[in-house]
Design brief:
Elements: E1 17-20, H1 21-40, E2 50-53, E3 59-62, H2 65-71, H3 77-93, H4 97-116, H5 121-142, E4 144-145, H6 149-160, H7 169-183, E5 185-187, E6 190-192, E7 198-204, E8 212-214, E9 217-219, E10 231-240, H8 260-283, E11 288-291, H9 297-305, E12 309-311, H10 316-326, E13 330-331, E14 343-353, E15 356-362, E16 370-376, H11 379-402, E17 404-407, H12 411-425, H13 431-442, H14 444-452, H15 457-469, E18 475-477, E19 484-486, E20 493-495, H16 496-514, E21 518-521
Parallel strand pairs: 7-16, 10-11, 10-13, 11-12
Antiparallel strand pairs: 1-21, 2-3, 4-17, 5-6, 8-16, 9-15, 10-14, 14-15, 17-20, 18-19
């Protein structure tokens, strides 16, 4: 029996654990650093690839940071916060995911050193905020305008360098620039682009150089009837959102037929109805029909007899893209179809691509939606080409919208590091230590580029600092010849938004993790320790941590 003192009070259910203070911070930082280290070797032109094998045996081979982190089945809460950095970077900038994660990991590593020197986490957070605000302000001074397609092409080449598509980066960069220029719009001096207007189809078989940009739309569909023409020139296209079929009643109904003549009349009425639908299409002047829903077999016959090219069950997104590309309007009721609703294309053609037929609608005047067909020798190759193309066209769109780019190769991070150290001297207090730690953390990008290229990171960073001290602010890591060189002369360029977002996201996440001093885990959950952290790859067949 309890005889004295305060009885213990339990406010959480049995099995709940709590990790507090320095221990909680250390474990969170260790988890975040582990995630950053897992993708660090993929950074830069000389970065290596990762093979991810899931529990079903499916294989993904990539060095795309966002893809790697998405495939990793991480249960550690702090590590999940680092993955959010990559997701945000991918959504807003389409590139720089690995850089953002590596910076976040390095910021936490540097903050751990400060915590051991008894610098309070809130002081570190304030210093990091001041440093990030100053760094993003300084970026504008290092940027220069993208005034030509050649500059945009260099931005795309920089994003593609180091990926599987690097061998054909000039070829893919040209496709990226032409695609962006086709769908980009300028309104009231503001540039806007919707990447959904660039439709990507991928087919294995053939060479990467068989990839092509279509000034129109590619549909992974074939004509509904073999009697229809395989191709049409000067196509007038009806975009139909309703089924070309006999409508079913919305309520239960029965038809009683008492003699053969009534059955014949019933079937004849169905035929006349379907023939009437086809005649309405003809009367509008259409020689091609793209239908979002079904087309009756008998209607297919009448369309074929009329020489009309028809496709059924097109996706809604394809219908919207066709409307933008051909200038046609999507019609719900064929009674309302008129010549003004028709879209126009120079040619519609059904082609055999790989093991399936695809329909190419090309030669669309003033197309506001285009298609890209990506080819590759195997499924894994074409998947990685798709990821590379998405990065390339993404950074080109960002550079085109913002009109400002920076030099790459770690040159901007080295310049910011030097300028932040000078800025810290005028701040004073313990925040100065945090700003200096932030400045040192930014050098992780050029240091990692050097390590992945097989260079000596210490000698390379010293050489880089010397060049920047001499006023050569565009100097970065030359991963091919070794040492450092002028990145502007080498045309190594990246959008300003990519670097700005990477710094902001990494800083905000690091600050959030640093402010945690108590990790409360329910029964059955990880307690926040590295011993409990699952760095397995999504049930990736027992694959060890990277």
């Amino acid at each position: 029996m309890y005889t004295g003192g305060q009885a213990p009070i339990f406010i959480m259910k049995e099995g709940t654990t709590s990790t507090r203070g320095r221990s909680a911070q250390s474990k969170n930082i260790a988890a975040a650093k582990a995630v950053a280290d897992s993708v660090r070797s993929t950074l830069g032109p000389k970065g290596m690839d990762k093979m991810l094998v899931d529990s079903m045996g499916d294989v993904v081979i990539t060095n795309d940071g966002a893809t790697i982190l998405k495939e990793m089945d991480i249960v550690e809460p702090a590590a999940k916060m680092i993955i959010e950095v990559a997701k945000t970077q991918e959504q807003h900038c389409h590139d720089g995911t690995t850089s953002a994660v590596v910076i976040a990991g390095e910021l936490l590593k540097r903050s751990e050193d400060l915590i051991e020197q008894n610098v309070h986490p809130t002081v570190i957070c304030e210093g990091f905020r001041l440093a990030a605000e100053k760094a993003t302000g300084l970026l504008e001074e290092h940027g220069f305008s993208t005034d030509s397609n050649e500059t945009l092409a260099e931005v795309a080449k920089t994003a593609l360098t180091g990926k599987s598509a690097g061998a054909v980066k000039e070829f893919l960069a040209d496709i990226c620039v032409r695609a962006v220029n086709s769908v980009g719009q300028e309104e009231d001096g503001e540039r806007l682009i919707d990447l959904a207007d660039i439709k990507v189809e991928k087919k294995q078989g053939g060479s990467i150089r068989d990839s092509t940009l279509i000034d129109g739309i590619i549909l992974d569909k074939e004509r509904v009837h073999t009697g229809m023409p395989r191709y049409l020139n000067d196509a007038n296209i009806a975009l139909v959102n309703s089924a070309i079929e006999v409508k079913k009643t919305e309520v239960d109904a029965k038809i009683h037929i008492t003699n053969p003549n009534q059955l014949a009349s019933f079937l004849e009425e169905e035929e006349n109805y379907l023939r009437g639908l086809v005649e309405k299409i003809q009367a509008a002047g259409a020689n091609a029909v793209i239908c979002q829903k079904g087309i009756d077999d008998l209607a297919q016959h009448y369309l074929s007899k009329a020489g009309i090219f028809a496709i059924r069950r097109a996706k809604k997104s394809d219908m919207e893209a066709l409307s933008k590309a051909t200038g046609g309007s999507v019609v719900t009721n064929l009674d309302d179809l008129s010549e003004e609703d028709l879209g126009h294309a120079a040619r519609i053609e059904e082609r055999k691509i790989g093991d399936s037929n695809m329909t190419f609608i090309t030669g669309c005047p003033e197309a506001k939606s285009v298609s890209v067909l990506l080819r590759g020798g195997t499924e894994h190759v074409v998947d990685e080409i798709r990821r590379a193309f998405d990065d390339g066209v993404g950074v080109v769109s960002v550079a085109w919208e913002d009109g400002t780019v920076l030099t790459g190769g770690g040159s901007v991070f080295a310049a910011l590091s030097r300028e932040l150290r000078a800025y810290a001297e005028g701040i004073g207090g313990r925040e100065q230590m945090a700003i200096e730690a932030f400045a040192s953390a930014l050098e992780v990008i050029p240091r990692t580029l050097a390590e992945n290229a097989g260079l000596d990171p210490v000698d390379t960073i010293i050489e880089l600092r010397k060049a920047h001290a001499e006023g050569k602010s565009h100097t970065g890591i030359n991963v091919y010849d070794g040492g450092v060189s002028d990145m502007k002369s080498a045309n190594v360029l990246e959008p300003l938004r990519v670097v700005e977002q990477a710094i902001q996201s990494a800083t905000e996440t690091a600050v959030m993790i640093l402010r945690i001093d108590d990790v409360i885990s329910s029964k059955g959950m990880s307690s926040g320790g590295m011993g409990d952290m699952d760095m397995g790859m999504g049930g990736m067949g027992g694959m060890p941590p990277m």
